[in-house]
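Continuing the batch. This is chain 6 of the set; chains 1 through 5 are on the previous pages. Same settings as before, nothing changed between runs. Recording input and output for traceability.
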Amino acid sequence: MEELTPRQIVAELDRYIVGQREAKKAVAIALRNRYRRRLLPPELRDEIMPKNILMIGPTGVGKTEIARRLARLVNAPFVKVEATKFTEVGYVGRDAESMVRDLVEVAIRMVKKEKMSEVSEKAARLAEERILEILAPSPKRRRPA
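Output for chain 6:
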């Protein structure tokens, strides 16, 4: 992400999303500003609040796809929820807190998948070595008397 400028982010989104130029530009700038804020020393970081974006518009204009593609671009978790199905805690239906739980679960799965891919090659090699050792053990060495 660090090497992507807002213009490059918009260009990447343009590969998948037609139109919505202003929306793509707004999310690209917001994303870049969040990254730049993380680079600041902690005492300054607390003084600069990140700006959130609320995308509104009719069905089918690309709001969800912009968010999905942006999340994929920066390897961030993404959860799509239908907010009308959520209720206050204590009422019938899903409570709004479950949105956060869903997002955390997606993030955990992403980290697990990343960690598994980091060790899978080594694990396969070690498993193969162990199986070969069991199937064809090396000759035992004699101990000097």
